[in-house]
Design brief:
Blueprint (H helix, E strand, L loop, with lengths): L2 E5 L3 E8 L11 E9 L1 H11 L3 E8 L3 H12 L3 E7 L6 E8 L4 E6 L8 H6 L1 H5 L3 E5 L4 H13 L3 E5 L16 E2 L3 H7 L10 H9 L5 E5 L5 E5 L2 E5 L12 H14 L4 H15 L12 H5 L3 H4 L3
Parallel strand pairs: 1-4, 1-8, 2-6, 4-5, 8-9, 9-10, 10-11
Antiparallel strand pairs: 2-3, 6-7, 11-12, 12-13
Helix pairs in contact: 1-8, 6-7, 8-9
């Protein structure tokens, strides 16, 4: 069993449906109010545990009811909470999400405690980083915090995966600690200072991302699979054929699967195949964490990917 530590974020989502999105200053009636767990870090940690890793979440929450409910989620999903830190300034991060009957939505997020997760927190708790086989970070936390985790990991020979989501311009940052940079098509473009819809070919985009310093670029392409680039060349690996119901959270599942494979010392192509299979299977169901498959489900279909690598 490999050890995966996710250095990332938790956000509780407060969700409501309405017939239409209200105009500025307008009040409308809503229905179906509910809360759900969100945040890329918690998604990844839960998925890694379902895929068989000894999974640890490292990040900041507030001293409030939402934070306590998050700890209950970690316990339910068999994720270690040894890396959970508390902000003394801010509450647990919250997102307000309104869905209209037309399929549109409006979202407002307060990153709160996630923004208070700082590089010095990594320095104070390096033992959590150093006890892992793989470190995985999305960017719903400060970039410098994620990179501090990466630098601490590389110093110990531990692989570091950076998922630049939400995307930021990474030019000017030291990415030499990054074993794999894993953006999607639009995020990758933002990472090199382009507009999200820039027409640059994916192969050229991957080459430009490699120039930023990571050892590997894994560009996720949704239903088209992934484009893997390194100094040894470029390879396209297709996705699994499934009936897609909801693709939300699939990227987090891919990153978790990739991390789990690497934590088990599998070759990178096989680790990528675990990620693709987990992500593809997750799109068959709604609700992010509940959609994530368990390892036996991935093992049952991974050969469909391995035979194409």
């Amino acid at each position: 069993m490999g050890k995966v530590t996710v250095v990332g974020s938790y956000i509780v989502a407060l969700v409501m449906d309405t017939k239409r999105i209200p105009l500025e200053g307008e009040t409308v009636m809503g229905y179906n109010y509910h809360t759900t767990h969100g945040g890329k870090g918690s998604n990844m940690a839960a998925c890694a545990a379902r895929l068989g890793a000894e999974s640890t979440f490292m990040g900041k929450i507030g001293r409030d009811n939402f934070g306590e409910e998050f700890l209950e989620l970690l316990q339910k999903e068999k994720v270690s909470c040894s890396g959970v830190l508390y902000s003394e300034k801010f509450p647990t991060a919250v997102g307000f999400i309104i869905f209209s009957s037309k399929g549109t939505n409006s979202i407002v997020i307060d990153i709160a405690a996630n923004g208070d997760f700082l590089p010095q927190d990594i320095d104070k708790h390096k033992h959590i980083i150093e006890s892992a086989d793989v470190i995985l970070s999305p960017l719903e936390i400060p970039v410098n915090t994620a990179l501090a985790a990466g630098q601490a990991a590389k110093a110990q020979g531990i692989k570091f995966i950076l998922n630049p989501a939400p995307a930021v311009d990474l030019r000017g940052y030291d990415l030499s600690s990054v074993f794999a940079l894993v953006p999607n098509e639009t995020e990758g473009r933002v990472c090199i200072g382009l507009e999200p819809n820039d027409p640059i070919p994916d192969e050229d985009l991957a080459a430009a991302l490699l120039d930023l310093g990571p050892e590997n670029i894994i560009l996720t392409l949704g239903a088209k699979g992934v484009l893997w680039a390194s100094k040894q060349g470029v390879k396209h690996i297709p996705a699994l054929k499934v009936k897609v119901v909801d693709s939300v959270g699939a990227g987090d599942a891919f990153n978790a699967g990739l991390a789990v494979g690497l934590s088990e010392n599998k070759p990178l192509p096989e680790a990528i195949a675990i990620g693709i299979t987990a992500a593809s299977l997750s799109t068959q169901y709604r609700e992010t964490i509940e959609s994530y498959p368990y390892r036996d489900q991935v093992d049952a279909r991974i050969k469909e990917i391995l035979t194409k690598i």
